């Protein structure tokens, strides 16, 4: 049986335990930064996340069903957030046909303005990374991109759009290649949210 990883005694000699505990601390930092922004602007964290996601993803992803999967919450939770954001004037529903009940969501001009005020909530984390050696960043990114892919394969992360799971990705010896862009992908060029991603 694995040793309890949040027991500090088990972290002394086990680097993976320490990394997991560290990632948990970093996830708290994201929560804190998001809450600070949310409180200042009178929105909830999930409402901010939705606005930022809708700003940068294709319409096909901006549905209640996909957003619930993307953020690992229930459809009613997304529907509630959507209702509030519509009432605040930040988003609107787009119906593909006049008799359609399903809809996609797009930002209004006020919504775009709100995105510009919220989208850099994680800047303090990036600022710290800017002080890190390029070689360390490269290896950190390699670990993170692989971890996301593995967690998706295990069914823990429901949605991801990394090269490793993309139908255009090909392993050629030890190199990664994109058959859509027709180029080799260096480690730093592996994408974790690629607009052209298509699942294998
Ligand atoms: S299409 Fe995008 S996700 Fe797919 S392999 Fe190419 S760069 Fe990676």
UniProtKB/TrEMBL annotation:
Any one GO molecular-function label of the UniProt entry: DNA binding
Q: Which Pfam families match?
A: MarR_2 (PF12802)
Q: Does the keyword Transcription apply?
A: yes
* UniProt KW keywords: DNA-binding, Transcription, Transcription regulation
User: Which InterPro entries does the protein's record reference?
Assistant: ArsR-like_HTH, HTH_MarR-typ, WH-like_DNA-bd_sf, WH_DNA-bd_sf
Residues forming the HTH marR-type domain are 16-146
Is Transcription among this UniProt entry's keywords?
A: yes
Tree of life domain: Bacteria
Q: What is this protein called?
A: DNA-binding MarR family transcriptional regulator
């Amino acid at each position: 049986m694995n040793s309890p990883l949040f027991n500090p005694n088990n972290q002394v000699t086990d680097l993976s335990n320490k990394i997991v505990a560290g990632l948990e601390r970093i996830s708290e930092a994201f929560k804190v930064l998001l809450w600070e922004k949310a409180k200042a602007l009178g929105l909830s964290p999930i409402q901010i996340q939705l606005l930022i996601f809708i700003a940068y993803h294709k319409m096909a992803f901006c549905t209640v069903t996909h957003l619930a999967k993307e953020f690992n919450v229930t459809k009613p939770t997304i529907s509630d957030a959507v209702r509030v954001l519509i009432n605040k004037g930040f988003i609107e529903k787009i119906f593909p046909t006049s008799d359609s009940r399903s809809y996609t969501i797009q930002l209004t001009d006020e919504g775009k303005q709100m995105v510009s005020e919220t989208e850099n909530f994680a800047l303090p984390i990036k600022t710290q990374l800017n002080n890190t050696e390029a070689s360390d960043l490269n290896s950190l990114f390699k670990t993170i991109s692989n971890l996301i892919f593995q967690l998706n394969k295990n069914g823990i992360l429901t949605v991801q759009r990394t090269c490793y799971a993309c139908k255009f990705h090909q392993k050629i010896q030890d190199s990664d290649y994109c058959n859509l862009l027709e180029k080799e992908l260096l480690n730093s060029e592996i994408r974790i949210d690629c607009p052209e991603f298509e699942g294998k």
